[in-house]
Design goal:
5-stranded mixed beta barrel; 20% helix; flat
């Protein structure tokens, strides 16, 4: 009995001591796991010290107040919601968490939305097996791949990081699981839009069709099903109260929508269209519609073809079709291609007119002379107007026989009327090459006919350069002798030993007839003369030595 009394006293004393310790430390186990409101007292290097109304102060890691690498967004005096994680028995402080407080608050709001079947806002931020992770304002949720959209989505990239509504399918706070659906939101929105559309429908004619009374039930006759021909507005073919024959072409049991058609009761004009409109045949049609890429031309009611912008004009490039044709205009077109399966006919507008380049080629043979106004001057030549639509080009190299291209171009100005000779016409590439210098005979023609590769010519030095000398032959042909070709002996291969106006004999290495230039060599001429001297003296019976022969050749060269 005494032993039991003693044990009870010890136990009672232990409980009193624990209660006293709790009171001293300010510990209240009822706060652990709850969300409290606190005021920031001060900041340390790693923590924010917060007064949460208990006897001990709490601390929150500063990293919870901002993204990694950024300064914490908190200051003394701020009032914040915090989650009580635990008490530190060692020093009596309370460990708090801002993130868990946000998560707890988010869970409470999400449970309320789930109970009321309300949508919640979230952001898709990651990809996991079978789906994606969604941030619902602090609480993490799982979005299955099948719940992303109504139809399979190949690229979810544009949806990532974008705030958007979700529907909570199920949630378990004990396990921390939330499953959401974006597809449910889209389906509900689409149903709402469909309901609004049906409520807004009225009997009669709308922009997209007409409603037909089928005896107590209305059906929609879409504008595209009224007739085979193009109809911009149903009122062009129908009037309210008009009786019509229609065919039920579709019935949607979900929406109870009946789709009707009138044209289906008539013969399809596209049957045997390839036979009626063979390629290369010409027809007259009416322009029914103009777009950025061309114009549609009606060949008969229900049969239209497209004149692509590239087939509208031979000369007007990069021009809007509306500047070439007008709606309701009658035009002549040529059938270029027919695809009956795709119900497409390609037409050409320019093909019914003569190709201006082919016409010019027929009327102006190569070598004929034309006259025109200079319409444009570019860095490489002149453009001369040959008709209202086409130009011919005179390249800068075809302006003058004597002057260089840029110098010759300085003699011309825009608007000047000039004559030129037709050098070439390429109708396929739409190019006409003209020449002005060809109106005169080439002053170097006789010299070019006479000068052949290997011939010895007399040149006049016109310029001395570091890499050779420039020369002229018969005052009409330009030539150049490279430094290495100035003499057989390297010591004599010095351009500075020549003077402007000096005459030299050189051997022709190459003739560039197009540019009227010669490649010449003095060294080659000397080598050839030495060989000739050896041949002449060596064949005689004079008994002369090789030195005598070379000496005679050198003396003869010096005399020359």
């Amino acid at each position: 009995m005494a032993s039991a009394t003693l044990m009870n006293s010890v136990a009672h004393g232990t409980e009193d001591f624990a209660a006293l310790l709790d009171e001293t430390l300010g510990r209240d186990t009822g706060f652990e796991g709850s969300v409290v409101t606190g005021r920031v007292i001060r900041l340390s290097d790693e923590f924010a010290i917060v007064d949460v109304g208990l006897k001990s102060e709490g601390r929150v890691a500063l990293k919870e107040f901002g993204p990694p690498g950024a300064a914490p967004d908190v200051k003394p005096g701020d009032v914040i919601e915090l989650y009580v994680e635990r008490y530190e028995d060692r020093d009596g402080s309370i460990v708090l968490s801002r993130e868990k407080a946000r998560r707890e608050e988010a869970w409470t709001a999400l449970e309320r939305a789930f109970g009321n079947n309300q949508r919640v806002n979230g952001t898709i931020y990651g990809r996991v097996k079978g789906g994606f992770t969604v941030d619902l304002g602090g609480a993490m949720a799982f979005l299955p791949g099948s719940q992303v959209d109504i139809r399979p989505v190949r690229d979810v990239g544009p949806l990532m990081g974008q705030p958007q509504p979700f529907q909570i399918l199920k949630m378990d706070r004990a396990r921390g699981n939330i499953v959401v659906s974006r597809r449910a939101v889209l389906e509900e929105t689409r149903a709402e839009q469909r309901s609004e559309l049906i409520q807004g429908l009225k009997e009669g004619i709308t922009d997209y069709g007409a409603f037909v009374d089928l005896g107590g039930v209305d059906g929609l006759l879409h504008v595209t099903d009224i007739a085979w021909k193009r109809i911009n507005h149903p009122s062009e073919a129908l009037q309210i109260g008009q009786p019509v024959r229609v065919q039920v072409i579709r019935f949607n049991s979900d929406t109870q929508r009946i789709s009707l058609g009138m044209k289906q009761l008539e013969a399809d004009p596209w049957e045997n269209v390839a036979v009626k409109y063979p390629a290369s045949a010409r027809y007259t049609g009416r322009v029914t519609n103009i777009t950025d890429y061309g114009a549609f031309v009606e060949l008969e009611p229900g049969v239209e073809g497209l004149v692509h912008v590239s087939e509208m004009s031979w000369t007007k490039k990069n021009v809007h079709p509306g500047k070439i044709v007008a709606t309701s205009q009658e035009v002549d077109v040529m059938v270029l291609d027919v695809d009956s399966s795709k119900r497409r006919i390609s037409l050409g507008l320019k093909q019914v007119q003569r190709n201006p380049w082919e016409q010019f080629q027929e009327e102006n043979k190569v070598g004929s002379v034309i006259e025109g106004e200079i319409r444009n001057i570019t860095e490489f030549g002149l453009f001369i107007g040959l008709s209202a639509d086409i130009d011919g080009m005179v390249h800068m190299s075809d302006l003058s026989w004597d002057e260089a291209g840029e110098a010759a171009m300085a003699n011309y100005e825009k608007g000047q009327v000039v004559k030129a000779k037709v050098l070439d016409v390429d109708a396929e590439k739409e190019r006409i090459s003209l020449g002005i210098k060809q109106l005169q005979e080439d002053p170097a023609a006789d010299t070019l006919a006479r000068v052949q590769k290997g011939a010895i010519v007399t040149c006049v030095v016109t310029a001395v350069q570091t890499n050779g000398i420039e020369v002229k032959v018969d005052e009409v042909l330009n030539g150049f002798i490279r430094r290495a070709e100035l003499a057989r002996d390297k010591a004599e291969q010095r351009p500075e030993r020549f003077a402007v106006g000096e005459k030299v004999d050189a051997k022709v290495v190459a003739v560039e007839r197009a540019s009227r230039k010669l490649a010449l060599t003095i060294r080659g001429r000397e080598v050839e003369e030495d060989k000739q001297a050896i041949t002449e003296y060596g064949s005689s019976d004079s008994g002369a030595s090789l030195g005598d022969i070379l000496g005679a050749a050198i003396r003869r060269r010096t005399t020359d």
